[in-house]
Amino acid sequence: MNDHRVLNALSYFSILFAPIIVPVLIWIFAKSEEVSHHAKVALLTHIIPTIAGILSFSSLFVTALLNGGIFTGMSFFLTGSLFIFTLITVVGLFIYNIVRGIQMLCAKKEEDIWI
């Protein structure tokens, strides 16, 4: 099996065990431009849910502090909508990373993989 495919798949599968650390290490130490590219994409798809989660939970706490609770009218609707959007984003990017990892392992050559 090609080492490039294994490293590419590891970049994406790292969402299961070390989401940001593994793609950064692979990106830094990769000798191939292909591996570096996939590590950057994996890193981006690992950072987006982290930032979205921090923003969502911080807005939840700010809403609770300012309005005396999250169950007050419009603030509940906005905070709940943001939380649902964040949840959909996290689940979607998790599935995306798993699918991309499987594609990296199953592809015969680089041209078979859509970027």
Automatic annotation (TrEMBL):
Q: How does it sit in the membrane?
A: Multi-pass membrane protein
Origin: domain of life: Bacteria
Q: What is its main location?
A: membrane
Segments spanning the bilayer are 6-29, 41-64, 76-99
**What keywords is this UniProt entry annotated with?**
Membrane, Transmembrane, Transmembrane helix
The record's section on Pfam families has: MamF_MmsF (PF09685)
Where is the protein found, in the record's own terms?
Membrane
Protein name per UniProt: DUF4870 domain-containing protein
